Amino acid sequence: MPSPAGLRVWLIFLAGLLLSPLLRAADPPVPSKPAIELHTVPADQLTPGKPAPLKEADLLKTIDPDDAQQLYIHGLYEKALARATALAAEDPRNEAWPLLRCQAELQLGKYDEARADLDKALVASPNSLRLRVLGYDLMRRTGDPLRAKALVEEMDRLGARSWAYTAPEDQIALGRAALLVNADPKKVLDRFFTPVKKLHPELREVWLASGELALQKSEFSLAAKTFSEAAKRFPNDPDVQFGLARAFAPSDSEAEMEALESALHGNPRHLGALLLLAEHHIDAEHPEEAAAALAEVLKIDPKRAEAHALRAVQAELAGDAAGFKEEREAALKPWPKNPEAEHLIGRKLSQKYRFTEGAEHQRRALEWEPENLQAKLQLAQDLLRLGHEEEGWKLAQEVRDADPYDVFAYNLTTLEETLSKFAQLPSEHFLVKMEAQEAQIYGPRVVALLERAHAQVGPKYGFTGKQKITVEIFPDQKDFAIRTFGLPGGAGYLGVCFGNVITANSPAANPNLQHNWESVLWHEFTHVVTLGLTKNKMPRWLSEGISVYEERQARGNWGEQMKPRYRAMILGNDLVPLSQLSGSFLRPKTPMHLQFAYYESSLAVEYLIERFGLPAMKAIFADLAQGVGINAALAKRAAPLADLDREFGERIRRLAQSVGPQLDWANPKPADVATEQKFTEWVEANPTNYAALMEKAKRLLEKREWAAAKAPLEKLLELYPDQHDAEGAYAMLARVQRELGEADAELATLTKLATLSSGATDAFLRLMEIHTARQEWKAVAGYAEQFTAVNPLVPAPHREAARAWEKLGDAPHAIAEYETLLKLGGSPEPEAHYALAGLLKTAGKKPEAKRHVLQALEDAPRYREALRLLKELQ
Predict the structure, then answer these.
(1) I want to staple 380 with a disulfide (CB 3.0 to 4.6 A). Which of 395, 606, 754, 769 is the partner?
(2) String of b and e for 242-267 (b: at least 16 CB within 10 Å)?
(3) Which residues, other chains included, contact 417 with Cβ-Cβ below 8 Å and sequence gap of 6+?
């Protein structure tokens, strides 16, 4: 029998292993480069069906009007309240009815009535844990934290008599009470929730409690599993669907919205779902839709703090200082020192990259409630993103010490240890942090590139940042994701800028992706400029658009380029009006749609600068910094939105139409490709069709019919010469020419491809090989540099560059490349050591030369040239 020390002490003796804090969400698949498609999926097939919310009359057709619980679950709160009141009068000893009555009053904003009814119910059921669990939430919502604390202490004492609470509903309440007294979550799960789930799987409350526990600890994959299983048992339960939406939120936005729509279908007045929907619209910069969702919340509960807090966020984002003050005061009216309201305001502002303001709200939340771990962890992340690392890491460790099960805190504190081992490369404007060996291989080049970007992009827009910019480059993609998002995932991201902090993946993090790391860092630094000039008050489309635009300004083959899929999307149904571009980034239909959002945004920026001039863009930045909304700034500095949408739409469609204007871009009809024979006939019958020419060439290449494959490829490139795909028609034609022995033609084709694509590593390697054979050493060195801008961790380009610089008589560059080659271990080491020793001898560095020649002889004792060189050195 447990001692009277309380539930907390009693739980210490429960059997069970600790829950691992490493239950992480699974990484989403890396977006692959799409193949050319013959069919375009209609937009309505890409969007999941949206079930319309049921009306009260429809709900009543499916619900027993005498079932108070079902009335409550489906949002008929007034009817549930009336029915619960009647049932409580009929059965005064059953605590379920006053409990449900208080829950309904809490949903309807009848806080005083709920408190009064709770007090009466506790008199009638003085040992009720279920009433006290509800009372804890009620007291915090109504601004009585002392009473909430007292209820927790009462639960702690009552929990010592756990043998008295054998009903499954009481077991769930025991588990929830145990969590409030900081019991071990694993033991709570094993002792209370799991046994009830096994014995009473029909009890929805145990599924909701288990899923909520996983959400509290940021165990999103576990939460998704729990709520998914619950959804099979309770397919029309709005609370289950709402839990599922929250579980999917960090990793699967489409699944999140589908679950959210299902929740609102079954309960159109579900306050949590409406609030989450409002957050979605705020993120998408749809202020009218967000306002509508919040208005629905306040119709039901005019005092709901979260709704007023989100309204305050909307006002702040719109530059409405008076509106922000009014809504924040309304959020704090039920509880003037409500840390949850401050935390919510700060979290949403941080999601809009307003980290400084967000941090201020978290500090206020912690001033009011120092033990609020959500606010402390959010503040830690804000500070780390602002570059205030010492305090940020300290706060993250405090959260982990207080709650070892919080996945975010665990991940961050583990990452701190990894970062502490990184090399640091300071320069005038930057502090670059990299894995030590990578820093030796290409760290100086990273610093040089960033300083060049600072010198070119900064003055162009009038940026004179005073704070050093921190750049962290991660060889492990999971470490990048944790530093950036707090959880593993985000595999499609190459880099992220928070303002004065940039995080990026190194080429080692995604070895199968051929991305130019130089263009990525240039892109991210441009964010530093634009976020700095606007005080982080800019829509994502404009920030991303300028960054991609500046990539292309720096190098013609950097950044997003026109491609057949983009052409089809522009001329199809996927073009988004300029005034609505922000929504393209929030919930893209596919990874390709997200890539297209970057490209379209860059064209929008190009249009604005060419049409209205760079001064107009800088004036828009100044307006945004003052809190002016983007559409208002565009209308003020450029033209009315309707004109901008029309002009931009016409411009981008003309651009798409200019791509391969003599090509037939039509897709085959289903009947044309119903069989292999028909498809072959269609290909032959359409000699200027893009898809037909590509397919014909691919089939001939598969058959190794080189001469025959040459004709469709040459025709394709004649009609569409501006192709940027590293593995497209140019690469295919170069292979054909090589197989046919057409050396000069192959060289010309590969050279053209290298000017069009910054990630064509196969072409760069072949060009190095060709120019080496022709002893054209400057070209070899140049293509080696282009290759290492994609992946500097591959030995081959360093080997070719070392030889080229040696032939050109540039000893410093040759020495650097040989040293890099030896660090990578990518060359026969005796030869590399011998070559390096000779260069060092010529440079007058005899001790270093002797060391390398001895290393060459250690691996190859009979290496005659090395023995001769050693004799000379001695």
Answers:
(1) 395
(2) bbbbbbbbbbbeebbbbbbbbbbbbb
(3) none
Please state the three-class secondary structure of 394-452 as a single string.
HHHHHHHHHCCCCHHHHHHHHHHHHHHCCEEEECCCEEEEECHHHHHHHHHHHHHHHHH
Distance CA 605, CA 540 (A): 12
End-to-end, the C-alpha distance of the chain in Å comes to 86
* Nearest-angstrom CA–CA distance, 557 and 190: 57
Nearest Cα to Cα of residue 511 among 36, 30, 34, 35: 30
Task: Report the candidate in 102, 101, 125, 97 with the shortest Cα–Cα distance to residue 115.
Answer: 102
* CA–CA dist 132, 98 (Å, integer): 12
Could you read off the pLDDT of 523-567 as tens digits, one per residue? Answer: 999 999 999 999 999 888 999 999 999 999 999 999 999 999 999
Tens of pLDDT, residue by residue over 218-272, are 899 999 999 999 999 999 899 999 999 999 988 787 889 899 999 999 999 999 9
CA–CA separation, 415 and 393 (whole Å):
10
Rg of the chain in Å (alpha carbons): 32
Strand (E) or helix (H) holding 471: strand 469-474
pLDDT at 545 (0 to 100):
96
Residue count of the chain: 874
Given a cut of 90, whether residue 577 has pLDDT beyond it is yes
Residue 167 DSSP symbol: S
For 18, other C-beta atoms within 10 Å of its C-beta total: 11
Are the CB atoms for 727 and 512 separated by under 8 Å?
A: no
Residue 660 is inside which H or E element, if any?
A: none
The pLDDT, as a whole number, for residue 65 is 80
The span from the CA of 244 to the CA of 242, in Å, is 5
Please state the pTM of the whole predicted model: 0.84
**Contact of 541 with 601, CB cutoff 8 Å:** yes
Pick 11 or 557 by higher pLDDT. Answer: 557
